[in-house]
Amino acid sequence: MTTKAYGATAADKPVAALDIDRRAPGANDVQIDIAYCGVCHSDLHTVRSEWPGTLYPCVPGHEIVGRVTAVGSDVSGFKVGDTVGVGCLVGSCQHCASCDEGLEQYCTNGFVGTYNGRTADAPGHTLGGYSQRIVVDKKFVLHIRHPQEQLAAVAPLLCAGITTYSPLRHWGAGPGKKIGVVGIGGLGHMGIKLAHAMGAHVVAFTTSESKREEARKLGADEVVISKDPAQMKAHAGSFDFILNTVAASHNLDAFTTLLKRDGTLCLVGVPEHAHPSPAVFNLIFGRKAIAGSLIGGIAETQEMLDFCAEHGIVADIEMIDAQGIEAAYERMLKSDVKYRFVIDTATM
Questions:
Q1: What one-character DSSP code corresponds to residue 261?
Q2: Beta-strand (E) ranges in 158-238?
Q3: pLDDT over threshold 90, residue 164
Q4: In principle, which of 34, 58, 121, 176 could form an S-S bond with 66, CB 3.0–4.6 Å?
Q5: Is 16 helix (H, G, I), strand (E, B) or coil?
Q6: Quick check: helix, strand or coil at residue 243?
Q7: What is the reported pLDDT for 17?
Q8: Residue 219: which of 168, 271, 159, 151 has the closest Cα?
Q9: So what's the pLDDT on residue 271?
Q10: 113 near 330, Cβ under 8 Å?
Q11: pLDDT band at 288 (very low <50, low <70, confident <90, very high)
């Protein structure tokens, strides 16, 4: 089935209109007409081959919201007309220890990404959500329960939302816990909203004084300017957990010193260049940990979507036309968005 899409044919080519083919729905498939697709930094890194292994043509997009238009004969739980989402995963082995535990993102045999993942479908790799339509195995389709008027702002939850929700849940954010969120961008603004809704005491870290009021509006109880040594020192040894969303190389010691005994600094941003090696002293004298977290499994992503629907949480977005993707990429590089671009697929 020929479908209109936006993608690139080479690393040095701009994202532009393409025609792609989607498979006919099989017995276990759900066909979705895409209404909105969020724009993630991963899209930019992949389409421009800033990360290794990009396959072309590359159609990015893994923050997908749309409506079911067909279901396979063996599909239950979804019907034509349902509002659904698709996140970063469209396949995994389904039989390793991680998959058995509903942690498909850690599939021992490698998950299949929503774009740039190996597949039997032409052209041999998956093509993502910058398109009018997608066909996905039922196991990787999610129910969206937000009202119609919020659907565009729901799209970024499928990546930015679950990327922050999963570590907050895993490390027990909630009442009585002091939680830090480093960086107030696409990921960080979701981390603040979610930690606040979970009932934690939330402290936002930013290098910019101008973001103080924004962070409070998002749900931060306190805001610390991380460039100010006095403000940082005032919080030494007081955090249960710090979620670090910054994707630029920086000194992690500034944050490990803020952790309580047994506290964890969790990284979810991947810098282009490695962070400076952290001081081991800070970790040993306090049994502290530096950890990482990758998106979330399908069950947890559904849990996150339901939690957000219950608490009225969506991303702060700016809607763009498909023709404006390249301009949006350039603005993303300058952090000139509050806080996530979303493509209106009707403009294709």
A1: E
A2: 178-182, 201-206, 222-225
A3: yes
A4: 34
A5: strand
A6: strand
A7: 98
A8: 168
A9: 86
A10: no
A11: very high
**Do 263 and 288 touch, CB atoms closer than 8 A?**
yes
Tens of pLDDT along 201-223? 999 999 999 999 999 999 999 99
Residue 157 DSSP SS3: helix
Rounded Cα–Cα distance for residues 220 and 217 (Å): 7
For 343, phi and psi rounded to 5 degrees?
-85, 130
End-to-end distance of the chain based on CA atoms, in angstroms?
A: 16
Q: Which residues pair with 178 in a beta bridge?
A: 201
Per-residue pLDDT at 270: 87
Q: Are 192 and 220 in contact (CB under 8 A)?
A: yes
Alpha-carbon distance 213 to 210, whole Å?
A: 7
Residue 46 is encoded by which pair of tokens? 């992949």
The model's pTM is: 0.96
- Residue 52: asked if its preceding bond is cis (omega within 30°), the reply is no
How confident is the model over 97-107, as pLDDT tens digits?
A: 999 999 999 99
Domains of the chain: 2-157+316-347 (3.90.180.10), 161-292 (3.40.50.720)
d(CA 67, CA 34): 7
Question: Cα(159)–Cα(70) distance, rounded to whole angstroms?
Answer: 25
Taking a C-beta distance cutoff of 8 angstroms, is the pair 34, 64 a contact?
A: yes
The amino acid that residue 182 corresponds to is: V
What's the chain's Rg over C-alpha atoms?
20
Strand-by-strand arrangement of the 201-206 sheet: 222-225, 201-206, 178-182, 239-244, 259-267, 289-292
**Chain position carrying tokens 């996905």:** 136
Check residue 287 and give its pLDDT: 98
H/E run at residue 33: strand 29-39
Q: Is the peptide bond before 14 cis (omega within 30 degrees of 0)?
A: no
How far is C-alpha 194 from the chain's CA centre?
A: 13
Question: What is the pLDDT at residue 297?
Answer: 98
CA distance 64 to 113: 13
pLDDT of residue 173: 98
**Nearest-angstrom CA–CA distance, 28 and 26:** 6
- DSSP letter (8 states) at residue 62: -
Backbone angle region of 293, left / alpha / beta, with phi > 0 → left and psi within -120 to 50 → alpha? beta
